[in-house]
Design goal:
The chain is mainly α. The protein has three domains: 217 residues, no CATH class; 142 residues, no CATH class; 97 residues. It is built from 20 helices and no strands. α12 packs antiparallel against α13. The longest helix is centred in the middle third of the chain and has 32 residues.
Length: 504
Protein backbone atom coordinates (compact mmCIF):
# COMPACT_ATOMS: atom_id res chain seq x y z
CA UNK A 1 0.00 0.00 0.00
CA UNK A 2 2.69 2.63 0.85
CA UNK A 3 4.58 1.78 -2.36
CA UNK A 4 1.40 2.22 -4.39
CA UNK A 5 0.80 5.59 -2.70
CA UNK A 6 4.32 6.74 -3.57
CA UNK A 7 3.93 5.57 -7.18
CA UNK A 8 0.59 7.36 -7.56
CA UNK A 9 1.86 10.54 -5.91
CA UNK A 10 5.00 10.54 -8.08
CA UNK A 11 2.88 10.14 -11.22
CA UNK A 12 0.68 13.06 -10.15
CA UNK A 13 3.73 15.16 -9.23
CA UNK A 14 5.07 14.71 -12.75
CA UNK A 15 1.67 15.34 -14.33
CA UNK A 16 1.01 18.47 -12.29
CA UNK A 17 4.41 20.18 -12.12
CA UNK A 18 6.61 19.21 -15.07
CA UNK A 19 7.19 22.42 -17.04
CA UNK A 20 4.19 24.03 -15.37
CA UNK A 21 3.81 27.24 -13.37
CA UNK A 22 2.11 27.33 -9.98
CA UNK A 23 -1.65 27.27 -9.88
CA UNK A 24 -4.31 24.62 -9.46
CA UNK A 25 -1.55 21.98 -9.36
CA UNK A 26 -0.48 23.03 -5.85
CA UNK A 27 -3.97 22.62 -4.44
CA UNK A 28 -4.49 19.25 -6.17
CA UNK A 29 -1.14 17.88 -4.99
CA UNK A 30 -1.88 19.01 -1.44
CA UNK A 31 -5.26 17.27 -1.56
CA UNK A 32 -3.72 14.04 -2.85
CA UNK A 33 -0.92 13.92 -0.26
CA UNK A 34 -3.09 14.89 2.71
CA UNK A 35 -5.77 12.48 1.48
CA UNK A 36 -3.23 9.67 1.38
CA UNK A 37 -2.15 10.50 4.93
CA UNK A 38 -5.78 10.56 6.11
CA UNK A 39 -6.42 7.19 4.48
CA UNK A 40 -3.35 5.75 6.18
CA UNK A 41 -3.84 7.16 9.69
CA UNK A 42 -7.49 8.24 9.82
CA UNK A 43 -8.88 11.47 11.26
CA UNK A 44 -8.59 10.12 14.80
CA UNK A 45 -4.93 9.36 14.18
CA UNK A 46 -4.25 13.04 13.48
CA UNK A 47 -3.07 14.95 16.55
CA UNK A 48 -4.18 18.52 17.29
CA UNK A 49 -1.00 19.98 15.68
CA UNK A 50 -1.58 17.77 12.62
CA UNK A 51 -5.16 19.00 12.29
CA UNK A 52 -4.13 22.64 12.61
CA UNK A 53 -1.41 22.10 10.01
CA UNK A 54 -3.96 20.40 7.76
CA UNK A 55 -6.30 23.39 8.05
CA UNK A 56 -3.43 25.76 7.33
CA UNK A 57 -2.41 23.70 4.31
CA UNK A 58 -5.95 23.83 2.94
CA UNK A 59 -6.01 27.62 3.29
CA UNK A 60 -2.57 28.04 1.70
CA UNK A 61 -3.39 25.69 -1.19
CA UNK A 62 -6.59 27.61 -1.93
CA UNK A 63 -4.73 30.92 -1.75
CA UNK A 64 -2.29 29.73 -4.44
CA UNK A 65 -5.29 29.36 -6.74
CA UNK A 66 -6.94 32.59 -5.60
CA UNK A 67 -3.95 34.98 -5.43
CA UNK A 68 -1.10 33.12 -7.21
CA UNK A 69 1.43 34.76 -4.89
CA UNK A 70 4.93 33.65 -3.88
CA UNK A 71 4.06 33.76 -0.19
CA UNK A 72 1.04 31.50 -0.75
CA UNK A 73 3.23 28.98 -2.62
CA UNK A 74 5.80 29.05 0.18
CA UNK A 75 3.07 28.65 2.83
CA UNK A 76 1.63 25.72 0.89
CA UNK A 77 4.99 23.92 0.82
CA UNK A 78 5.81 24.54 4.48
CA UNK A 79 2.35 23.54 5.71
CA UNK A 80 2.35 20.34 3.63
CA UNK A 81 5.66 19.27 5.18
CA UNK A 82 4.21 20.05 8.62
CA UNK A 83 1.09 17.98 7.96
CA UNK A 84 3.17 14.98 6.88
CA UNK A 85 5.52 15.23 9.85
CA UNK A 86 2.75 15.55 12.45
CA UNK A 87 0.74 12.76 10.78
CA UNK A 88 3.67 10.34 10.89
CA UNK A 89 4.62 11.34 14.44
CA UNK A 90 1.40 12.35 16.28
CA UNK A 91 3.27 12.91 19.55
CA UNK A 92 5.33 15.75 18.10
CA UNK A 93 4.41 19.19 19.50
CA UNK A 94 6.79 21.71 17.95
CA UNK A 95 7.13 22.94 14.40
CA UNK A 96 10.92 22.93 14.38
CA UNK A 97 11.03 19.23 15.29
CA UNK A 98 8.34 18.65 12.65
CA UNK A 99 10.66 20.38 10.16
CA UNK A 100 13.48 18.07 11.31
CA UNK A 101 11.16 15.09 10.84
CA UNK A 102 10.32 16.25 7.31
CA UNK A 103 13.96 16.88 6.38
CA UNK A 104 14.97 13.46 7.73
CA UNK A 105 12.28 11.84 5.60
CA UNK A 106 13.58 13.45 2.41
CA UNK A 107 17.20 12.59 3.21
CA UNK A 108 16.57 8.98 4.23
CA UNK A 109 14.30 8.16 1.28
CA UNK A 110 17.13 7.58 -1.29
CA UNK A 111 18.97 5.35 1.19
CA UNK A 112 15.83 3.34 1.86
CA UNK A 113 15.23 3.06 -1.87
CA UNK A 114 18.65 1.47 -2.42
CA UNK A 115 18.06 -0.91 0.48
CA UNK A 116 14.64 -1.74 -0.95
CA UNK A 117 16.20 -2.67 -4.30
CA UNK A 118 18.56 -5.03 -2.47
CA UNK A 119 15.67 -6.65 -0.60
CA UNK A 120 13.62 -6.92 -3.78
CA UNK A 121 16.41 -8.72 -5.65
CA UNK A 122 15.81 -12.42 -6.49
CA UNK A 123 16.43 -14.70 -3.54
CA UNK A 124 18.75 -17.18 -5.28
CA UNK A 125 22.37 -17.24 -4.21
CA UNK A 126 23.79 -16.09 -7.55
CA UNK A 127 21.59 -12.97 -7.65
CA UNK A 128 22.39 -12.04 -4.06
CA UNK A 129 26.12 -12.42 -4.67
CA UNK A 130 25.87 -10.39 -7.87
CA UNK A 131 24.08 -7.52 -6.09
CA UNK A 132 26.58 -7.64 -3.24
CA UNK A 133 29.56 -7.48 -5.59
CA UNK A 134 27.91 -4.68 -7.56
CA UNK A 135 27.55 -2.58 -4.44
CA UNK A 136 31.08 -3.36 -3.31
CA UNK A 137 32.50 -2.50 -6.72
CA UNK A 138 30.84 0.89 -7.24
CA UNK A 139 32.89 2.83 -4.67
CA UNK A 140 36.31 1.46 -5.75
CA UNK A 141 35.53 2.20 -9.41
CA UNK A 142 34.46 5.77 -8.60
CA UNK A 143 37.59 6.35 -6.53
CA UNK A 144 39.75 4.83 -9.28
CA UNK A 145 38.27 7.25 -11.81
CA UNK A 146 38.81 10.18 -9.43
CA UNK A 147 42.49 9.38 -8.84
CA UNK A 148 43.03 8.74 -12.54
CA UNK A 149 41.78 12.22 -13.33
CA UNK A 150 43.97 13.73 -10.59
CA UNK A 151 47.06 11.94 -11.92
CA UNK A 152 46.22 12.97 -15.50
CA UNK A 153 45.99 16.60 -14.42
CA UNK A 154 49.36 16.39 -12.66
CA UNK A 155 51.35 14.32 -15.18
CA UNK A 156 51.26 15.23 -18.91
CA UNK A 157 52.73 11.89 -20.05
CA UNK A 158 50.22 9.90 -18.01
CA UNK A 159 47.52 12.14 -19.49
CA UNK A 160 48.69 11.27 -23.03
CA UNK A 161 48.91 7.58 -22.15
CA UNK A 162 45.32 7.37 -20.87
CA UNK A 163 43.76 9.94 -23.21
CA UNK A 164 42.20 7.47 -25.63
CA UNK A 165 40.65 5.22 -22.99
CA UNK A 166 39.43 7.98 -20.66
CA UNK A 167 38.03 10.16 -23.44
CA UNK A 168 36.13 7.20 -24.81
CA UNK A 169 34.86 6.29 -21.35
CA UNK A 170 33.60 9.80 -20.63
CA UNK A 171 32.00 9.97 -24.06
CA UNK A 172 30.14 6.73 -23.35
CA UNK A 173 29.05 8.02 -19.94
CA UNK A 174 27.85 11.26 -21.53
CA UNK A 175 25.81 9.33 -24.10
CA UNK A 176 24.30 7.21 -21.33
CA UNK A 177 23.22 10.27 -19.34
CA UNK A 178 21.96 12.00 -22.46
CA UNK A 179 19.85 9.00 -23.45
CA UNK A 180 18.57 7.71 -20.11
CA UNK A 181 19.01 10.45 -17.49
CA UNK A 182 17.19 13.28 -19.21
CA UNK A 183 15.93 16.36 -17.43
CA UNK A 184 12.47 14.83 -17.30
CA UNK A 185 13.83 11.60 -15.79
CA UNK A 186 15.66 13.54 -13.09
CA UNK A 187 12.49 15.52 -12.41
CA UNK A 188 10.53 12.28 -11.96
CA UNK A 189 13.21 10.99 -9.57
CA UNK A 190 13.00 14.26 -7.66
CA UNK A 191 9.22 13.86 -7.52
CA UNK A 192 9.64 10.33 -6.22
CA UNK A 193 11.88 11.54 -3.40
CA UNK A 194 9.44 14.32 -2.51
CA UNK A 195 6.45 11.96 -2.64
CA UNK A 196 8.15 9.27 -0.58
CA UNK A 197 9.36 11.82 1.96
CA UNK A 198 5.80 13.06 2.43
CA UNK A 199 3.84 9.81 2.28
CA UNK A 200 6.21 7.32 3.93
CA UNK A 201 7.24 7.22 7.58
CA UNK A 202 10.95 7.07 6.89
CA UNK A 203 12.47 7.57 10.36
CA UNK A 204 9.93 6.28 12.90
CA UNK A 205 10.49 7.42 16.47
CA UNK A 206 13.90 9.04 15.98
CA UNK A 207 12.87 12.71 16.01
CA UNK A 208 10.04 12.07 18.48
CA UNK A 209 12.48 10.68 21.03
CA UNK A 210 14.64 13.80 20.65
CA UNK A 211 11.67 16.04 21.46
CA UNK A 212 10.37 13.92 24.34
CA UNK A 213 13.21 15.14 26.55
CA UNK A 214 11.83 18.68 26.56
CA UNK A 215 8.83 20.11 28.40
CA UNK A 216 7.18 23.52 28.68
CA UNK A 217 7.78 23.67 32.44
CA UNK A 218 11.29 24.41 33.67
CA UNK A 219 12.59 21.77 36.10
CA UNK A 220 14.99 22.71 38.86
CA UNK A 221 18.39 21.07 38.65
CA UNK A 222 20.10 20.57 42.00
CA UNK A 223 23.88 20.43 41.91
CA UNK A 224 25.50 19.05 45.05
CA UNK A 225 29.09 19.87 45.82
CA UNK A 226 31.34 17.04 47.02
CA UNK A 227 31.76 16.86 50.79
CA UNK A 228 35.51 17.23 50.45
CA UNK A 229 35.25 20.43 48.32
CA UNK A 230 35.97 23.73 50.07
CA UNK A 231 33.13 26.24 50.37
CA UNK A 232 32.93 29.05 47.84
CA UNK A 233 33.09 32.67 48.97
CA UNK A 234 29.82 33.40 47.19
CA UNK A 235 27.28 31.09 45.63
CA UNK A 236 27.40 31.18 41.79
CA UNK A 237 23.67 32.00 41.65
CA UNK A 238 24.18 34.95 43.98
CA UNK A 239 27.07 36.26 41.88
CA UNK A 240 24.98 35.96 38.76
CA UNK A 241 22.02 37.64 40.48
CA UNK A 242 24.14 40.62 41.53
CA UNK A 243 25.64 40.95 38.07
CA UNK A 244 22.15 40.78 36.56
CA UNK A 245 20.80 43.39 38.99
CA UNK A 246 23.55 45.86 38.08
CA UNK A 247 23.05 45.27 34.36
CA UNK A 248 19.25 45.50 34.42
CA UNK A 249 19.21 48.66 36.55
CA UNK A 250 21.58 50.36 34.10
CA UNK A 251 19.81 49.27 30.90
CA UNK A 252 16.36 50.04 32.33
CA UNK A 253 17.46 53.60 33.06
CA UNK A 254 19.04 53.91 29.63
CA UNK A 255 15.98 52.54 27.85
CA UNK A 256 13.67 54.74 29.91
CA UNK A 257 15.42 57.81 28.48
CA UNK A 258 15.06 56.45 24.93
CA UNK A 259 11.37 55.65 25.47
CA UNK A 260 10.59 59.07 26.92
CA UNK A 261 12.21 60.72 23.89
CA UNK A 262 10.32 58.46 21.45
CA UNK A 263 6.96 58.90 23.18
CA UNK A 264 7.34 62.67 23.11
CA UNK A 265 8.75 62.77 19.56
CA UNK A 266 7.28 59.84 17.61
CA UNK A 267 4.02 58.93 19.32
CA UNK A 268 2.22 62.28 19.26
CA UNK A 269 2.19 64.96 16.55
CA UNK A 270 5.20 63.65 14.61
CA UNK A 271 6.28 65.87 11.72
CA UNK A 272 9.20 65.45 9.33
CA UNK A 273 11.68 68.26 10.07
CA UNK A 274 13.37 70.20 7.27
CA UNK A 275 16.50 68.49 5.89
CA UNK A 276 15.66 65.40 7.99
CA UNK A 277 16.50 61.98 6.52
CA UNK A 278 13.32 59.99 7.10
CA UNK A 279 14.93 57.10 5.20
CA UNK A 280 17.83 56.86 7.67
CA UNK A 281 15.44 57.40 10.56
CA UNK A 282 13.39 54.37 9.53
CA UNK A 283 15.72 52.04 7.63
CA UNK A 284 18.83 52.17 9.80
CA UNK A 285 17.22 53.34 13.03
CA UNK A 286 14.44 50.74 12.90
CA UNK A 287 16.77 47.80 12.47
CA UNK A 288 19.14 49.02 15.14
CA UNK A 289 16.26 49.21 17.62
CA UNK A 290 14.95 45.79 16.58
CA UNK A 291 18.43 44.34 17.10
CA UNK A 292 18.52 45.95 20.54
CA UNK A 293 15.20 44.28 21.41
CA UNK A 294 16.44 40.90 20.21
CA UNK A 295 19.69 41.33 22.17
CA UNK A 296 17.66 42.19 25.27
CA UNK A 297 15.66 38.98 24.86
CA UNK A 298 18.85 36.94 24.53
CA UNK A 299 20.28 38.48 27.72
CA UNK A 300 17.11 37.74 29.69
CA UNK A 301 16.97 34.18 28.38
CA UNK A 302 20.56 33.73 29.54
CA UNK A 303 19.90 35.12 33.00
CA UNK A 304 16.83 32.92 33.50
CA UNK A 305 18.12 29.81 31.79
CA UNK A 306 18.44 27.51 34.83
CA UNK A 307 18.12 27.72 38.62
CA UNK A 308 17.97 31.51 38.79
CA UNK A 309 14.24 30.97 38.20
CA UNK A 310 14.03 29.13 41.56
CA UNK A 311 16.48 31.21 43.58
CA UNK A 312 14.75 32.69 46.63
CA UNK A 313 16.60 36.02 46.36
CA UNK A 314 15.90 36.59 42.64
CA UNK A 315 12.59 38.43 43.16
CA UNK A 316 14.21 41.83 42.59
CA UNK A 317 15.96 40.50 39.48
CA UNK A 318 12.62 39.29 38.11
CA UNK A 319 10.99 42.67 38.74
CA UNK A 320 13.78 44.40 36.84
CA UNK A 321 13.46 41.82 34.05
CA UNK A 322 9.70 42.44 33.81
CA UNK A 323 10.37 46.18 33.64
CA UNK A 324 12.89 45.65 30.82
CA UNK A 325 10.44 43.46 28.90
CA UNK A 326 7.71 46.11 29.24
CA UNK A 327 10.11 48.86 28.20
CA UNK A 328 11.21 46.83 25.19
CA UNK A 329 7.55 46.39 24.28
CA UNK A 330 7.13 50.18 24.42
CA UNK A 331 10.25 50.48 22.24
CA UNK A 332 8.65 48.03 19.80
CA UNK A 333 5.58 50.25 19.59
CA UNK A 334 7.86 53.21 18.84
CA UNK A 335 9.56 51.22 16.06
CA UNK A 336 6.13 50.35 14.65
CA UNK A 337 5.20 54.06 14.66
CA UNK A 338 8.43 54.94 12.85
CA UNK A 339 7.50 52.53 10.08
CA UNK A 340 3.94 53.85 10.09
CA UNK A 341 5.18 57.43 9.59
CA UNK A 342 7.44 56.25 6.77
CA UNK A 343 4.52 54.52 5.03
CA UNK A 344 2.39 57.64 5.55
CA UNK A 345 5.07 59.68 3.76
CA UNK A 346 6.41 57.26 1.09
CA UNK A 347 3.63 54.70 0.60
CA UNK A 348 3.56 50.91 0.97
CA UNK A 349 6.21 48.41 -0.15
CA UNK A 350 6.97 44.79 0.58
CA UNK A 351 9.95 45.54 2.83
CA UNK A 352 7.86 47.94 4.92
CA UNK A 353 5.18 45.29 5.35
CA UNK A 354 7.89 42.78 6.20
CA UNK A 355 9.22 45.07 8.95
CA UNK A 356 5.74 45.30 10.47
CA UNK A 357 5.23 41.53 10.43
CA UNK A 358 8.69 40.85 11.86
CA UNK A 359 8.12 43.46 14.55
CA UNK A 360 4.78 41.90 15.52
CA UNK A 361 6.50 38.54 15.90
CA UNK A 362 9.17 40.20 18.07
CA UNK A 363 6.42 41.65 20.28
CA UNK A 364 4.87 38.18 20.57
CA UNK A 365 8.31 36.96 21.60
CA UNK A 366 8.46 39.61 24.33
CA UNK A 367 5.06 38.56 25.67
CA UNK A 368 6.07 34.90 25.76
CA UNK A 369 9.37 35.85 27.39
CA UNK A 370 7.42 37.67 30.11
CA UNK A 371 5.33 34.51 30.64
CA UNK A 372 8.47 32.36 30.61
CA UNK A 373 10.04 34.32 33.47
CA UNK A 374 6.83 34.67 35.50
CA UNK A 375 5.63 31.07 35.09
CA UNK A 376 9.08 29.43 35.00
CA UNK A 377 8.66 28.15 31.48
CA UNK A 378 11.42 26.49 29.47
CA UNK A 379 13.21 27.53 26.29
CA UNK A 380 11.31 24.74 24.58
CA UNK A 381 8.09 26.58 25.42
CA UNK A 382 9.46 29.82 23.97
CA UNK A 383 10.59 28.18 20.75
CA UNK A 384 7.40 26.14 20.35
CA UNK A 385 4.97 29.03 20.84
CA UNK A 386 6.92 31.50 18.72
CA UNK A 387 7.33 28.98 15.90
CA UNK A 388 3.55 28.49 15.82
CA UNK A 389 3.12 32.27 15.85
CA UNK A 390 5.42 32.63 12.84
CA UNK A 391 3.61 29.78 11.07
CA UNK A 392 0.23 31.40 11.72
CA UNK A 393 1.52 34.73 10.42
CA UNK A 394 2.74 33.02 7.24
CA UNK A 395 -0.69 31.49 6.61
CA UNK A 396 -2.48 34.77 7.31
CA UNK A 397 -0.14 36.65 4.96
CA UNK A 398 -0.98 34.18 2.19
CA UNK A 399 -4.66 35.15 2.35
CA UNK A 400 -4.03 38.72 1.13
CA UNK A 401 -3.37 39.91 -2.41
CA UNK A 402 -0.47 42.11 -1.40
CA UNK A 403 0.39 43.35 -4.90
CA UNK A 404 -3.07 44.78 -5.46
CA UNK A 405 -3.28 46.12 -1.90
CA UNK A 406 0.05 47.95 -2.24
CA UNK A 407 -0.87 49.46 -5.61
CA UNK A 408 -4.33 50.57 -4.42
CA UNK A 409 -2.85 52.21 -1.32
CA UNK A 410 -0.11 54.00 -3.25
CA UNK A 411 -2.45 55.20 -6.00
CA UNK A 412 -4.65 56.81 -3.35
CA UNK A 413 -1.71 58.22 -1.39
CA UNK A 414 -1.79 61.92 -0.55
CA UNK A 415 1.94 62.49 -1.05
CA UNK A 416 2.10 61.94 -4.80
CA UNK A 417 5.67 63.10 -5.24
CA UNK A 418 7.11 60.44 -2.92
CA UNK A 419 5.53 57.32 -4.45
CA UNK A 420 7.85 54.81 -6.13
CA UNK A 421 6.28 54.66 -9.60
CA UNK A 422 8.97 52.18 -10.75
CA UNK A 423 7.60 49.69 -8.24
CA UNK A 424 4.30 49.56 -10.14
CA UNK A 425 6.08 47.97 -13.09
CA UNK A 426 7.77 45.37 -10.86
CA UNK A 427 4.49 44.04 -9.51
CA UNK A 428 2.79 40.90 -10.78
CA UNK A 429 0.33 40.85 -13.66
CA UNK A 430 -2.60 41.05 -11.23
CA UNK A 431 -2.17 44.83 -10.97
CA UNK A 432 -2.36 45.53 -14.72
CA UNK A 433 -6.10 46.40 -14.70
CA UNK A 434 -5.56 48.71 -11.71
CA UNK A 435 -2.76 50.57 -13.43
CA UNK A 436 -4.64 50.95 -16.71
CA UNK A 437 -7.66 52.28 -14.84
CA UNK A 438 -5.52 54.85 -13.00
CA UNK A 439 -3.02 56.01 -15.61
CA UNK A 440 -3.99 59.61 -14.89
CA UNK A 441 -3.03 59.15 -11.21
CA UNK A 442 0.31 57.60 -12.20
CA UNK A 443 1.02 60.53 -14.54
CA UNK A 444 0.20 62.97 -11.74
CA UNK A 445 2.60 61.16 -9.40
CA UNK A 446 5.34 61.32 -12.04
CA UNK A 447 4.77 65.05 -12.58
CA UNK A 448 4.84 65.70 -8.86
CA UNK A 449 8.04 63.71 -8.37
CA UNK A 450 9.70 65.64 -11.23
CA UNK A 451 9.40 68.77 -9.09
CA UNK A 452 11.42 67.26 -6.22
CA UNK A 453 14.99 68.39 -5.64
CA UNK A 454 16.09 64.76 -5.19
CA UNK A 455 14.71 62.40 -7.83
CA UNK A 456 15.02 58.65 -7.26
CA UNK A 457 12.31 57.42 -9.65
CA UNK A 458 13.67 56.37 -13.05
CA UNK A 459 10.41 56.22 -15.00
CA UNK A 460 9.17 59.81 -15.24
CA UNK A 461 7.82 59.69 -18.79
CA UNK A 462 4.15 58.69 -19.14
CA UNK A 463 4.83 57.38 -22.64
CA UNK A 464 7.68 55.15 -21.42
CA UNK A 465 5.48 53.90 -18.58
CA UNK A 466 2.67 53.02 -21.01
CA UNK A 467 5.08 51.21 -23.37
CA UNK A 468 6.45 49.08 -20.53
CA UNK A 469 2.93 48.43 -19.30
CA UNK A 470 1.87 47.34 -22.79
CA UNK A 471 4.79 44.91 -22.96
CA UNK A 472 3.73 43.41 -19.61
CA UNK A 473 0.14 43.16 -20.83
CA UNK A 474 1.14 41.41 -24.08
CA UNK A 475 3.34 38.96 -22.19
CA UNK A 476 0.48 38.19 -19.87
CA UNK A 477 -1.91 37.56 -22.77
CA UNK A 478 0.65 35.25 -24.38
CA UNK A 479 1.25 33.36 -21.15
CA UNK A 480 -2.45 33.11 -20.37
CA UNK A 481 -3.28 31.82 -23.86
CA UNK A 482 -0.62 29.09 -23.58
CA UNK A 483 -1.37 28.12 -19.96
CA UNK A 484 -2.37 24.53 -19.22
CA UNK A 485 -5.15 23.49 -16.88
CA UNK A 486 -2.61 22.74 -14.12
CA UNK A 487 -1.61 26.42 -14.08
CA UNK A 488 -5.13 27.84 -13.83
CA UNK A 489 -5.71 30.48 -11.15
CA UNK A 490 -8.58 32.77 -10.28
CA UNK A 491 -6.12 35.70 -10.28
CA UNK A 492 -5.17 35.13 -13.94
CA UNK A 493 -8.78 34.63 -15.01
CA UNK A 494 -9.85 37.80 -13.24
CA UNK A 495 -6.96 39.77 -14.78
CA UNK A 496 -7.69 38.47 -18.30
CA UNK A 497 -11.37 39.39 -17.99
CA UNK A 498 -10.53 42.91 -16.73
CA UNK A 499 -8.03 43.48 -19.56
CA UNK A 500 -10.56 42.54 -22.25
CA UNK A 501 -12.15 45.98 -22.07
CA UNK A 502 -8.79 47.77 -22.47
CA UNK A 503 -7.90 48.68 -26.09
CA UNK A 504 -4.61 47.32 -27.41
Amino acid sequence: MPVAMVALTTFLFDLLFWQRDAGLNFLLFNVVVTGALLVRYGWTGFSAPARWALLANGVAGCMVVVHDSVIAIFASIISLIAVAAFAHEPRLRSLYYAALQGAAGFLVTPVNAVSGIALAAPSNRTSRNGWRWLRLGVLPVLLLLLFTQLYRAGNPKFHALTAGFMDGLFEAIGEFFERFLTAHTLFVLFGAVISAGLVLHAVPGVVRRLEEGYTDILVRTRLKRPSWSHALAMDPLERERRMGMILLVAVNLLLAVVNVIDIDWVWFGFEVPTDFSLKQFVHEGTWMLIISILLSMVILMYLFRWNQNFYARSKGLKILAFAWVVQNFILGVSVFLRNYHYISFHGLAYKRIGVIVFLLLVLVGLVTLFIKIRERKSFFYLARINAWAAFSALILLSTIDWDSSIVRYNLAHWNQGEIDVDNYLEMSDKVLPLLYANLDVVEAQMAKHSQNEVRWVETLSPEAFKRTLAVKRDRFHERYAQAHWQEWTIADSRTAAALESIPH
